[in-house]
Amino acid sequence: MKLGNNNRLRIKGKLAFIVGGSGLIGNEIVKTFLKEGAKVVILDVCKNIDFKKINSEYEHRCHYHFFDCKKLSLIEKYILSLCKKYGCPDIFVNSSYPKTRDWVSNNFDKIKLSSYKKNIDFFLNSNVWIAKTIAVVMKKRNIKGSIIFLGSIYGKVGQDRNMYLGTNMRENMTYSVIKGGIDSMVRQMASYFGKYNIRVNNLCPGALNSHVAGLAPIQSKRFIKNFISKNPIKRLGTAEEISYVALFLASDESSYITGASIYVDGGYTSV
Question: Which structural domain range is residue 82 located in?
Answer without folding.
Answer: 15-270
